[in-house]
Protein backbone atom coordinates (compact mmCIF):
# COMPACT_ATOMS: atom_id res chain seq x y z
CA UNK A 1 0.00 0.00 0.00
CA UNK A 2 1.37 3.42 -0.87
CA UNK A 3 0.78 6.09 1.74
CA UNK A 4 -1.44 8.98 0.61
CA UNK A 5 0.62 11.91 -0.65
CA UNK A 6 0.06 15.26 0.97
CA UNK A 7 -0.03 17.93 -1.74
CA UNK A 8 1.63 21.30 -1.39
CA UNK A 9 -0.68 24.25 -0.87
CA UNK A 10 -1.10 25.49 -4.43
CA UNK A 11 -4.66 26.72 -4.34
CA UNK A 12 -5.92 29.69 -2.46
CA UNK A 13 -5.16 32.02 -5.35
CA UNK A 14 -8.78 33.07 -5.73
CA UNK A 15 -9.15 33.60 -1.99
CA UNK A 16 -5.88 35.54 -2.00
CA UNK A 17 -6.92 37.87 -4.79
CA UNK A 18 -10.39 38.31 -3.34
CA UNK A 19 -9.19 39.21 0.14
CA UNK A 20 -6.46 41.48 -1.21
CA UNK A 21 -9.10 43.28 -3.32
CA UNK A 22 -11.38 43.58 -0.30
CA UNK A 23 -8.43 44.91 1.65
CA UNK A 24 -7.62 47.58 -0.92
CA UNK A 25 -11.27 48.64 -1.21
CA UNK A 26 -11.63 48.81 2.59
CA UNK A 27 -8.50 50.88 3.03
CA UNK A 28 -9.46 53.16 0.14
CA UNK A 29 -12.85 53.79 1.75
CA UNK A 30 -11.14 54.53 5.06
CA UNK A 31 -8.80 56.95 3.30
CA UNK A 32 -11.82 58.66 1.72
CA UNK A 33 -13.23 59.03 5.20
CA UNK A 34 -10.10 60.94 6.14
CA UNK A 35 -11.11 63.73 3.79
CA UNK A 36 -14.26 64.20 5.83
CA UNK A 37 -12.76 63.85 9.30
CA UNK A 38 -9.16 62.80 9.86
CA UNK A 39 -9.66 61.88 13.51
CA UNK A 40 -12.68 59.70 12.76
CA UNK A 41 -10.85 57.88 10.00
CA UNK A 42 -7.79 57.30 12.18
CA UNK A 43 -9.90 56.15 15.11
CA UNK A 44 -11.55 53.54 12.90
CA UNK A 45 -8.20 52.59 11.41
CA UNK A 46 -6.65 52.11 14.85
CA UNK A 47 -9.46 49.65 15.65
CA UNK A 48 -8.92 47.58 12.49
CA UNK A 49 -5.16 47.70 12.93
CA UNK A 50 -5.07 46.61 16.60
CA UNK A 51 -7.67 43.88 16.00
CA UNK A 52 -5.69 42.11 13.27
CA UNK A 53 -2.30 42.82 14.77
CA UNK A 54 -3.60 41.21 17.98
CA UNK A 55 -4.49 38.02 16.09
CA UNK A 56 -1.08 37.97 14.40
CA UNK A 57 0.78 38.44 17.69
CA UNK A 58 -1.52 36.02 19.49
CA UNK A 59 -0.54 33.40 16.92
CA UNK A 60 3.15 34.29 17.36
CA UNK A 61 2.90 33.94 21.15
CA UNK A 62 1.01 30.67 20.84
CA UNK A 63 3.67 29.35 18.47
CA UNK A 64 6.50 30.43 20.77
CA UNK A 65 4.76 28.88 23.77
CA UNK A 66 4.30 25.58 21.91
CA UNK A 67 8.01 25.57 21.10
CA UNK A 68 8.97 26.49 24.66
CA UNK A 69 6.78 23.66 25.99
CA UNK A 70 8.19 21.22 23.39
CA UNK A 71 4.55 20.46 22.64
CA UNK A 72 4.04 17.55 20.24
CA UNK A 73 0.28 17.46 19.74
CA UNK A 74 -0.02 20.85 17.97
CA UNK A 75 2.63 20.11 15.30
CA UNK A 76 -0.13 19.68 12.72
CA UNK A 77 -1.36 23.22 13.49
CA UNK A 78 2.06 24.79 13.32
CA UNK A 79 2.24 25.84 9.68
CA UNK A 80 -1.04 27.74 10.03
CA UNK A 81 0.33 29.50 13.12
CA UNK A 82 3.62 30.23 11.36
CA UNK A 83 2.07 31.93 8.34
CA UNK A 84 -0.30 33.91 10.57
CA UNK A 85 2.57 35.10 12.76
CA UNK A 86 4.84 35.81 9.78
CA UNK A 87 2.44 38.51 8.53
CA UNK A 88 3.92 40.81 11.23
CA UNK A 89 6.08 42.84 8.77
CA UNK A 90 2.91 43.80 6.86
CA UNK A 91 1.77 45.65 9.95
CA UNK A 92 4.89 47.83 9.88
CA UNK A 93 3.64 49.12 6.53
CA UNK A 94 0.13 49.49 7.88
CA UNK A 95 1.49 51.40 10.88
CA UNK A 96 2.56 54.33 8.67
CA UNK A 97 -0.87 56.07 8.60
CA UNK A 98 -1.02 55.92 12.40
CA UNK A 99 2.52 57.29 12.72
CA UNK A 100 1.58 60.19 10.46
CA UNK A 101 -1.59 60.99 12.38
CA UNK A 102 -0.42 60.62 15.99
CA UNK A 103 -1.50 64.13 16.98
CA UNK A 104 -5.10 63.43 15.99
CA UNK A 105 -5.41 60.47 18.34
CA UNK A 106 -3.10 60.76 21.33
CA UNK A 107 -3.56 63.61 23.82
CA UNK A 108 0.10 63.56 24.86
CA UNK A 109 1.38 64.68 21.45
CA UNK A 110 0.08 68.25 21.71
CA UNK A 111 -1.78 68.61 25.04
CA UNK A 112 -4.64 71.02 24.48
CA UNK A 113 -5.47 73.77 26.96
CA UNK A 114 -8.87 72.34 27.90
CA UNK A 115 -7.29 69.22 29.48
CA UNK A 116 -6.83 71.15 32.71
CA UNK A 117 -3.72 72.14 34.59
CA UNK A 118 -3.24 68.89 36.50
CA UNK A 119 -3.50 66.70 33.41
CA UNK A 120 -1.10 68.93 31.50
CA UNK A 121 1.32 68.72 34.40
CA UNK A 122 1.14 64.89 34.37
CA UNK A 123 1.64 64.77 30.61
CA UNK A 124 4.64 67.11 30.92
CA UNK A 125 6.08 64.80 33.57
CA UNK A 126 5.74 61.86 31.17
CA UNK A 127 7.32 63.74 28.29
CA UNK A 128 10.66 61.85 28.47
CA UNK A 129 8.80 58.61 27.67
CA UNK A 130 5.82 59.80 25.66
CA UNK A 131 7.34 61.85 22.87
CA UNK A 132 7.01 61.30 19.15
CA UNK A 133 10.61 60.28 18.28
CA UNK A 134 10.87 57.77 21.15
CA UNK A 135 7.37 56.48 20.39
CA UNK A 136 8.34 55.79 16.77
CA UNK A 137 11.70 54.29 17.77
CA UNK A 138 9.91 51.89 20.12
CA UNK A 139 7.47 50.95 17.36
CA UNK A 140 10.37 50.11 15.04
CA UNK A 141 11.96 47.98 17.76
CA UNK A 142 8.70 46.07 18.31
CA UNK A 143 8.38 45.32 14.61
CA UNK A 144 12.02 44.26 14.37
CA UNK A 145 11.51 41.71 17.15
CA UNK A 146 8.11 40.41 15.96
CA UNK A 147 9.18 40.32 12.32
CA UNK A 148 12.54 38.71 13.08
CA UNK A 149 11.24 35.98 15.36
CA UNK A 150 8.22 35.08 13.22
CA UNK A 151 10.24 35.11 9.99
CA UNK A 152 12.93 32.80 11.39
CA UNK A 153 10.44 30.39 12.95
CA UNK A 154 8.59 30.17 9.64
CA UNK A 155 11.74 29.85 7.51
CA UNK A 156 13.37 27.15 9.65
CA UNK A 157 10.17 25.17 9.70
CA UNK A 158 9.85 25.35 5.90
CA UNK A 159 13.48 24.30 5.50
CA UNK A 160 12.83 21.26 7.62
CA UNK A 161 10.10 20.22 5.15
CA UNK A 162 12.69 19.29 2.55
CA UNK A 163 15.52 17.98 4.72
CA UNK A 164 13.75 16.59 7.79
CA UNK A 165 16.83 17.61 9.76
CA UNK A 166 16.13 17.49 13.52
CA UNK A 167 18.50 20.45 13.99
CA UNK A 168 15.73 22.82 12.83
CA UNK A 169 13.41 21.56 15.56
CA UNK A 170 16.08 22.33 18.11
CA UNK A 171 16.69 25.81 16.70
CA UNK A 172 12.98 26.62 16.61
CA UNK A 173 12.58 25.50 20.20
CA UNK A 174 15.53 27.60 21.34
CA UNK A 175 14.31 30.69 19.50
CA UNK A 176 10.64 30.20 20.45
CA UNK A 177 11.37 29.71 24.13
CA UNK A 178 14.18 32.26 24.25
CA UNK A 179 12.17 34.98 22.52
CA UNK A 180 9.14 34.68 24.83
CA UNK A 181 10.33 37.34 27.34
CA UNK A 182 11.06 39.79 24.52
CA UNK A 183 7.72 39.02 22.87
CA UNK A 184 5.83 39.47 26.13
CA UNK A 185 7.56 42.77 26.88
CA UNK A 186 7.12 44.21 23.39
CA UNK A 187 3.46 43.14 23.37
CA UNK A 188 2.89 44.84 26.72
CA UNK A 189 4.61 48.07 25.74
CA UNK A 190 2.77 48.05 22.41
CA UNK A 191 -0.58 48.01 24.21
CA UNK A 192 0.53 50.80 26.55
CA UNK A 193 1.85 52.92 23.67
CA UNK A 194 -0.78 52.42 21.02
CA UNK A 195 -3.93 51.75 23.04
CA UNK A 196 -3.69 52.87 26.67
CA UNK A 197 -2.05 56.22 25.91
CA UNK A 198 -5.31 57.27 24.22
CA UNK A 199 -6.18 58.22 27.79
CA UNK A 200 -4.43 61.33 29.04
CA UNK A 201 -3.70 60.17 32.59
CA UNK A 202 -5.58 56.92 33.28
CA UNK A 203 -3.41 53.86 33.74
CA UNK A 204 -3.79 50.23 34.70
CA UNK A 205 -1.02 47.72 35.27
CA UNK A 206 -3.19 44.87 34.01
CA UNK A 207 -4.21 46.55 30.74
CA UNK A 208 -1.61 44.70 28.66
CA UNK A 209 -2.71 41.34 30.06
CA UNK A 210 -6.32 42.17 29.21
CA UNK A 211 -5.40 42.91 25.60
CA UNK A 212 -3.20 39.80 25.45
CA UNK A 213 -5.88 37.46 26.79
CA UNK A 214 -8.39 38.79 24.26
CA UNK A 215 -5.91 38.43 21.40
CA UNK A 216 -4.96 34.93 22.53
CA UNK A 217 -8.61 33.86 22.51
CA UNK A 218 -8.83 35.38 19.02
CA UNK A 219 -5.77 33.49 17.76
CA UNK A 220 -7.06 30.16 19.12
CA UNK A 221 -10.47 30.83 17.56
CA UNK A 222 -8.75 31.65 14.27
CA UNK A 223 -6.94 28.28 14.26
CA UNK A 224 -10.19 26.42 14.95
CA UNK A 225 -11.90 28.27 12.11
CA UNK A 226 -8.99 27.67 9.71
CA UNK A 227 -9.24 23.97 10.57
CA UNK A 228 -13.00 23.64 10.15
CA UNK A 229 -12.97 25.75 6.97
CA UNK A 230 -10.45 23.42 5.28
CA UNK A 231 -12.00 20.20 6.56
CA UNK A 232 -13.19 19.03 3.17
CA UNK A 233 -10.05 20.06 1.28
CA UNK A 234 -6.68 18.38 1.04
CA UNK A 235 -5.12 20.81 3.48
CA UNK A 236 -4.42 20.75 7.16
CA UNK A 237 -8.07 20.82 8.20
CA UNK A 238 -8.44 17.27 6.92
CA UNK A 239 -5.66 16.08 9.22
CA UNK A 240 -7.22 17.50 12.38
CA UNK A 241 -8.93 14.90 14.54
CA UNK A 242 -11.54 15.36 17.28
CA UNK A 243 -8.56 15.17 19.66
CA UNK A 244 -7.07 18.36 18.23
CA UNK A 245 -10.40 20.15 18.40
CA UNK A 246 -10.89 18.99 21.97
CA UNK A 247 -7.51 20.40 22.96
CA UNK A 248 -8.03 23.66 21.09
CA UNK A 249 -11.49 23.95 22.64
CA UNK A 250 -10.06 23.37 26.10
CA UNK A 251 -7.43 26.07 25.54
CA UNK A 252 -10.15 28.38 24.24
CA UNK A 253 -12.22 27.69 27.35
CA UNK A 254 -9.22 28.36 29.61
CA UNK A 255 -8.43 31.68 27.98
CA UNK A 256 -12.05 32.83 27.90
CA UNK A 257 -11.96 32.30 31.67
CA UNK A 258 -8.57 34.02 31.92
CA UNK A 259 -9.88 37.00 29.96
CA UNK A 260 -12.88 37.29 32.30
CA UNK A 261 -10.65 36.93 35.34
CA UNK A 262 -8.31 39.71 34.21
CA UNK A 263 -11.10 42.05 33.08
CA UNK A 264 -12.98 41.46 36.32
CA UNK A 265 -10.00 41.89 38.64
CA UNK A 266 -9.15 45.24 37.03
CA UNK A 267 -12.77 46.33 37.41
CA UNK A 268 -13.14 45.12 41.00
CA UNK A 269 -9.92 46.75 42.23
CA UNK A 270 -10.81 50.09 40.66
CA UNK A 271 -14.41 49.88 41.82
CA UNK A 272 -13.53 49.18 45.44
CA UNK A 273 -10.72 51.74 45.61
CA UNK A 274 -12.85 54.40 43.86
CA UNK A 275 -9.88 56.71 43.26
CA UNK A 276 -10.77 59.74 41.14
CA UNK A 277 -7.93 59.16 38.65
CA UNK A 278 -9.03 55.58 38.01
CA UNK A 279 -12.81 55.38 38.09
CA UNK A 280 -13.31 57.74 35.14
CA UNK A 281 -12.49 54.94 32.71
CA UNK A 282 -15.32 52.80 34.11
CA UNK A 283 -17.74 55.69 34.58
CA UNK A 284 -17.63 56.20 30.82
CA UNK A 285 -18.04 52.48 30.14
CA UNK A 286 -20.87 52.03 32.65
CA UNK A 287 -22.74 55.10 31.45
CA UNK A 288 -25.92 55.04 29.40
CA UNK A 289 -24.74 53.97 25.95
CA UNK A 290 -21.38 52.30 26.51
CA UNK A 291 -22.89 50.43 29.47
CA UNK A 292 -24.96 48.37 27.04
CA UNK A 293 -21.78 47.43 25.18
CA UNK A 294 -20.11 46.46 28.47
CA UNK A 295 -23.02 44.19 29.35
CA UNK A 296 -22.98 42.64 25.88
CA UNK A 297 -19.29 41.93 26.39
CA UNK A 298 -19.81 40.25 29.78
CA UNK A 299 -22.58 38.05 28.41
CA UNK A 300 -21.15 37.41 24.95
CA UNK A 301 -17.43 37.12 25.69
CA UNK A 302 -17.76 35.19 28.93
CA UNK A 303 -21.13 33.86 30.12
CA UNK A 304 -22.33 32.31 26.85
CA UNK A 305 -19.01 30.78 25.64
CA UNK A 306 -18.27 29.61 29.19
CA UNK A 307 -21.55 27.73 29.37
CA UNK A 308 -21.11 26.26 25.88
CA UNK A 309 -17.45 25.27 26.21
CA UNK A 310 -18.11 23.41 29.46
CA UNK A 311 -19.51 20.61 27.33
CA UNK A 312 -16.98 17.94 26.45
CA UNK A 313 -18.87 16.73 23.39
CA UNK A 314 -19.12 20.22 21.94
CA UNK A 315 -15.35 20.64 22.06
CA UNK A 316 -14.74 17.51 19.99
CA UNK A 317 -17.24 18.49 17.28
CA UNK A 318 -15.48 20.60 14.64
CA UNK A 319 -18.61 22.21 13.25
CA UNK A 320 -20.10 23.35 16.56
CA UNK A 321 -16.73 24.39 17.98
CA UNK A 322 -16.14 26.35 14.77
CA UNK A 323 -19.39 28.24 15.34
CA UNK A 324 -18.34 29.09 18.92
CA UNK A 325 -14.93 30.20 17.63
CA UNK A 326 -16.56 32.43 15.02
CA UNK A 327 -18.72 33.96 17.73
CA UNK A 328 -15.65 34.62 19.91
CA UNK A 329 -13.80 36.21 16.99
CA UNK A 330 -16.74 38.61 16.64
CA UNK A 331 -16.78 39.20 20.40
CA UNK A 332 -13.06 39.95 20.28
CA UNK A 333 -13.93 42.82 17.92
CA UNK A 334 -16.43 44.08 20.52
CA UNK A 335 -13.69 43.81 23.16
CA UNK A 336 -11.22 45.87 21.12
CA UNK A 337 -13.93 48.42 20.30
CA UNK A 338 -14.84 48.57 23.99
CA UNK A 339 -11.23 49.33 24.90
CA UNK A 340 -10.68 51.98 22.22
CA UNK A 341 -13.83 53.92 21.36
CA UNK A 342 -15.00 55.02 24.83
CA UNK A 343 -11.48 56.42 25.29
CA UNK A 344 -11.65 58.26 21.97
CA UNK A 345 -15.25 59.46 22.38
CA UNK A 346 -15.95 59.63 26.14
CA UNK A 347 -18.77 62.13 25.87
CA UNK A 348 -20.90 60.32 23.31
CA UNK A 349 -21.67 56.80 22.16
CA UNK A 350 -20.05 56.77 18.77
CA UNK A 351 -18.30 54.22 16.58
CA UNK A 352 -17.13 55.76 13.28
CA UNK A 353 -18.10 53.93 10.09
CA UNK A 354 -14.43 53.83 9.19
CA UNK A 355 -14.06 51.19 11.91
CA UNK A 356 -15.87 48.73 9.63
CA UNK A 357 -14.05 49.72 6.44
CA UNK A 358 -10.67 49.63 8.20
CA UNK A 359 -11.50 46.24 9.75
CA UNK A 360 -12.26 44.85 6.29
CA UNK A 361 -9.26 46.63 4.81
CA UNK A 362 -6.59 45.53 7.26
CA UNK A 363 -8.20 42.10 7.55
CA UNK A 364 -8.30 41.55 3.79
CA UNK A 365 -4.64 42.45 3.41
CA UNK A 366 -3.47 40.31 6.34
CA UNK A 367 -5.46 37.26 5.21
CA UNK A 368 -4.04 37.72 1.70
CA UNK A 369 -0.53 38.01 3.15
CA UNK A 370 -0.96 34.81 5.19
CA UNK A 371 -2.23 32.92 2.12
CA UNK A 372 0.67 34.30 0.06
CA UNK A 373 3.17 33.08 2.67
CA UNK A 374 1.53 29.64 2.66
CA UNK A 375 1.63 29.18 -1.12
CA UNK A 376 3.87 26.43 -2.45
CA UNK A 377 4.68 25.01 1.00
CA UNK A 378 3.15 22.03 2.72
CA UNK A 379 0.07 22.76 4.82
CA UNK A 380 1.69 20.98 7.79
CA UNK A 381 5.38 20.76 8.76
CA UNK A 382 6.04 17.43 7.02
CA UNK A 383 9.68 17.27 8.12
CA UNK A 384 8.93 17.56 11.81
CA UNK A 385 9.83 14.38 13.70
CA UNK A 386 6.78 14.74 15.93
CA UNK A 387 4.22 15.07 13.13
CA UNK A 388 3.28 11.39 13.41
CA UNK A 389 2.73 11.82 17.12
CA UNK A 390 0.53 14.83 16.46
CA UNK A 391 -1.54 12.98 13.87
CA UNK A 392 -2.35 10.24 16.37
CA UNK A 393 -3.81 12.58 18.96
CA UNK A 394 -7.14 11.39 20.33
CA UNK A 395 -9.57 12.93 22.80
CA UNK A 396 -8.38 12.16 26.33
CA UNK B 1 -28.82 -14.08 47.42
CA UNK B 2 -25.28 -13.12 46.63
CA UNK B 3 -24.06 -11.46 43.50
CA UNK B 4 -21.65 -13.29 41.28
CA UNK B 5 -19.18 -11.94 38.77
CA UNK B 6 -18.32 -14.10 35.83
CA UNK B 7 -14.97 -13.13 34.35
CA UNK B 8 -13.69 -14.04 30.91
CA UNK B 9 -10.26 -13.26 29.49
CA UNK B 10 -9.88 -12.46 25.80
CA UNK B 11 -6.70 -12.31 23.78
CA UNK B 12 -7.33 -9.00 22.03
CA UNK B 13 -9.33 -5.82 22.39
CA UNK B 14 -11.27 -6.63 19.23
CA UNK B 15 -12.35 -9.99 20.63
CA UNK B 16 -13.36 -8.31 23.87
CA UNK B 17 -15.43 -5.65 22.11
CA UNK B 18 -17.14 -8.28 19.97
CA UNK B 19 -17.87 -10.39 23.06
CA UNK B 20 -19.29 -7.43 24.98
CA UNK B 21 -21.61 -6.57 22.10
CA UNK B 22 -22.74 -10.18 21.90
CA UNK B 23 -23.37 -10.42 25.64
CA UNK B 24 -25.47 -7.29 25.52
CA UNK B 25 -27.43 -8.69 22.61
CA UNK B 26 -28.09 -11.77 24.77
CA UNK B 27 -29.63 -9.52 27.40
CA UNK B 28 -26.89 -9.23 30.03
CA UNK B 29 -26.84 -5.69 31.32
CA UNK B 30 -24.31 -5.41 34.15
CA UNK B 31 -21.16 -5.62 32.06
CA UNK B 32 -17.72 -4.25 32.68
CA UNK B 33 -14.41 -4.31 30.86
CA UNK B 34 -10.91 -4.46 32.34
CA UNK B 35 -8.08 -3.72 29.93
CA UNK B 36 -4.38 -2.90 30.29
CA UNK B 37 -4.92 0.40 28.43
CA UNK B 38 -8.01 2.47 27.56
CA UNK B 39 -9.89 0.88 24.67
CA UNK B 40 -12.28 3.49 23.32
CA UNK B 41 -14.53 0.99 21.59
CA UNK B 42 -15.45 -0.62 24.91
CA UNK B 43 -17.21 2.56 26.05
CA UNK B 44 -19.67 2.15 23.25
CA UNK B 45 -19.83 -1.65 23.50
CA UNK B 46 -20.68 -1.49 27.21
CA UNK B 47 -23.57 0.86 26.45
CA UNK B 48 -22.60 3.08 29.36
CA UNK B 49 -25.23 5.58 30.39
CA UNK B 50 -24.29 9.19 30.93
CA UNK B 51 -22.77 9.72 34.34
CA UNK B 52 -24.87 11.60 36.87
CA UNK B 53 -21.75 13.25 38.22
CA UNK B 54 -21.75 16.39 36.01
CA UNK B 55 -25.33 17.17 36.96
CA UNK B 56 -24.53 16.68 40.65
CA UNK B 57 -21.53 18.97 40.33
CA UNK B 58 -23.62 21.62 38.59
CA UNK B 59 -26.26 21.50 41.30
CA UNK B 60 -23.71 21.66 44.09
CA UNK B 61 -21.83 24.49 42.37
CA UNK B 62 -24.95 26.59 41.91
CA UNK B 63 -26.06 25.78 45.47
CA UNK B 64 -22.71 26.80 46.94
CA UNK B 65 -22.61 29.98 44.88
CA UNK B 66 -26.15 30.90 45.86
CA UNK B 67 -25.46 30.26 49.52
CA UNK B 68 -22.29 32.37 49.41
CA UNK B 69 -24.07 35.27 47.78
CA UNK B 70 -27.03 35.22 50.17
CA UNK B 71 -24.73 34.87 53.18
CA UNK B 72 -22.69 37.92 52.15
CA UNK B 73 -25.76 39.95 51.37
CA UNK B 74 -27.35 39.04 54.71
CA UNK B 75 -24.20 39.75 56.72
CA UNK B 76 -23.30 43.04 55.05
CA UNK B 77 -26.61 44.59 54.15
CA UNK B 78 -29.09 43.22 56.71
CA UNK B 79 -27.56 41.79 59.85
CA UNK B 80 -24.60 44.09 60.47
CA UNK B 81 -24.62 47.09 58.12
CA UNK B 82 -21.34 48.98 58.25
CA UNK B 83 -20.74 52.17 56.29
CA UNK B 84 -17.21 52.21 54.84
CA UNK B 85 -16.52 55.49 53.10
CA UNK B 86 -20.06 55.69 51.71
CA UNK B 87 -19.81 52.46 49.73
CA UNK B 88 -23.08 50.63 49.12
CA UNK B 89 -23.93 48.03 51.74
CA UNK B 90 -25.06 45.53 49.12
CA UNK B 91 -22.22 45.69 46.59
CA UNK B 92 -22.47 43.17 43.78
CA UNK B 93 -18.85 43.30 42.47
CA UNK B 94 -17.37 42.65 45.89
CA UNK B 95 -19.63 39.66 46.49
CA UNK B 96 -18.62 37.89 43.30
CA UNK B 97 -15.17 36.49 44.27
CA UNK B 98 -16.49 34.63 47.33
CA UNK B 99 -19.55 33.50 45.38
CA UNK B 100 -17.32 32.08 42.64
CA UNK B 101 -14.91 30.44 45.07
CA UNK B 102 -17.60 28.72 47.12
CA UNK B 103 -19.33 27.58 43.93
CA UNK B 104 -16.12 25.91 42.72
CA UNK B 105 -15.34 24.47 46.15
CA UNK B 106 -18.82 22.95 46.58
CA UNK B 107 -18.71 21.42 43.11
CA UNK B 108 -15.23 19.97 43.69
CA UNK B 109 -16.04 18.53 47.11
CA UNK B 110 -19.26 17.07 45.79
CA UNK B 111 -17.45 15.34 42.94
CA UNK B 112 -14.91 13.98 45.39
CA UNK B 113 -17.53 12.71 47.82
CA UNK B 114 -19.88 11.36 45.15
CA UNK B 115 -17.02 9.46 43.51
CA UNK B 116 -16.19 7.90 46.86
CA UNK B 117 -19.80 6.74 47.25
CA UNK B 118 -19.99 5.48 43.66
CA UNK B 119 -16.73 3.57 44.10
CA UNK B 120 -18.34 1.91 47.11
CA UNK B 121 -15.99 3.57 49.56
CA UNK B 122 -15.66 1.86 52.80
CA UNK B 123 -14.71 -1.19 50.70
CA UNK B 124 -11.22 -0.70 49.39
CA UNK B 125 -11.04 -3.77 47.16
CA UNK B 126 -13.26 -5.83 44.90
CA UNK B 127 -13.80 -9.61 44.89
CA UNK B 128 -12.46 -9.92 41.33
CA UNK B 129 -8.98 -9.14 42.62
CA UNK B 130 -9.06 -12.48 44.46
CA UNK B 131 -8.65 -14.22 41.13
CA UNK B 132 -4.93 -14.70 40.60
CA UNK B 133 -5.09 -14.78 36.79
CA UNK B 134 -7.04 -11.49 36.76
CA UNK B 135 -3.65 -9.79 37.21
CA UNK B 136 -3.19 -10.14 33.47
CA UNK B 137 -5.75 -7.30 33.10
CA UNK B 138 -2.81 -4.99 33.87
CA UNK B 139 -0.47 -6.77 31.45
CA UNK B 140 -1.90 -8.36 28.32
CA UNK B 141 -5.38 -9.70 29.09
CA UNK B 142 -8.65 -8.16 28.01
CA UNK B 143 -11.30 -9.11 30.55
CA UNK B 144 -15.04 -8.93 30.39
CA UNK B 145 -16.98 -9.16 33.62
CA UNK B 146 -20.68 -9.85 33.97
CA UNK B 147 -22.48 -9.32 37.26
CA UNK B 148 -25.32 -11.81 37.70
CA UNK B 149 -27.30 -13.69 40.34
CA UNK B 150 -25.89 -17.05 41.43
CA UNK B 151 -28.24 -19.20 39.35
CA UNK B 152 -27.41 -17.38 36.12
CA UNK B 153 -23.65 -17.79 36.51
CA UNK B 154 -23.33 -21.11 34.62
CA UNK B 155 -25.26 -19.63 31.68
CA UNK B 156 -22.85 -16.69 31.41
CA UNK B 157 -19.90 -19.01 31.85
CA UNK B 158 -21.04 -21.03 28.88
CA UNK B 159 -21.69 -17.91 26.82
CA UNK B 160 -18.19 -16.59 27.52
CA UNK B 161 -16.55 -19.87 26.56
CA UNK B 162 -18.60 -19.94 23.40
CA UNK B 163 -17.37 -16.44 22.55
CA UNK B 164 -13.79 -17.64 22.71
CA UNK B 165 -12.64 -16.61 26.18
CA UNK B 166 -9.17 -17.96 27.02
CA UNK B 167 -10.26 -18.65 30.58
CA UNK B 168 -13.36 -18.09 32.65
CA UNK B 169 -13.67 -17.62 36.43
CA UNK B 170 -16.60 -17.03 38.73
CA UNK B 171 -16.29 -14.85 41.82
CA UNK B 172 -18.91 -14.69 44.52
CA UNK B 173 -19.65 -11.66 46.61
CA UNK B 174 -18.42 -12.51 50.06
CA UNK B 175 -16.86 -10.76 52.98
CA UNK B 176 -14.78 -8.23 51.18
Automatic annotation (TrEMBL), chain A:
<keyword id="KW-1133">Transmembrane helix</keyword>
<feature type="transmembrane region" description="Helical">
    <location>
        <begin position="320"/>
        <end position="341"/>
    </location>
</feature>
<feature type="transmembrane region" description="Helical">
    <location>
        <begin position="135"/>
        <end position="154"/>
    </location>
</feature>
<feature type="transmembrane region" description="Helical">
    <location>
        <begin position="49"/>
        <end position="69"/>
    </location>
</feature>
<feature type="transmembrane region" description="Helical">
    <location>
        <begin position="248"/>
        <end position="269"/>
    </location>
</feature>
<feature type="transmembrane region" description="Helical">
    <location>
        <begin position="207"/>
        <end position="227"/>
    </location>
</feature>
<feature type="transmembrane region" description="Helical">
    <location>
        <begin position="289"/>
        <end position="308"/>
    </location>
</feature>
<protein>
    <recommendedName>
        <fullName>Quinol:cytochrome C oxidoreductase</fullName>
    </recommendedName>
</protein>
<feature type="transmembrane region" description="Helical">
    <location>
        <begin position="175"/>
        <end position="195"/>
    </location>
</feature>
<keyword id="KW-0472">Membrane</keyword>
<feature type="transmembrane region" description="Helical">
    <location>
        <begin position="353"/>
        <end position="374"/>
    </location>
</feature>
<keyword id="KW-0812">Transmembrane</keyword>
<feature type="transmembrane region" description="Helical">
    <location>
        <begin position="81"/>
        <end position="102"/>
    </location>
</feature>
UniProtKB/TrEMBL annotation, chain B:
<dbReference type="Pfam" id="PF11821">
    <property type="entry name" value="ActD"/>
</dbReference>
<keyword id="KW-1133">Transmembrane helix</keyword>
<feature type="transmembrane region" description="Helical">
    <location>
        <begin position="55"/>
        <end position="75"/>
    </location>
</feature>
<dbReference type="InterPro" id="IPR021776">
    <property type="entry name" value="ActD"/>
</dbReference>
<keyword id="KW-0472">Membrane</keyword>
<feature type="transmembrane region" description="Helical">
    <location>
        <begin position="95"/>
        <end position="119"/>
    </location>
</feature>
<protein>
    <submittedName>
        <fullName>DUF3341 domain-containing protein</fullName>
    </submittedName>
</protein>
<keyword id="KW-0812">Transmembrane</keyword>
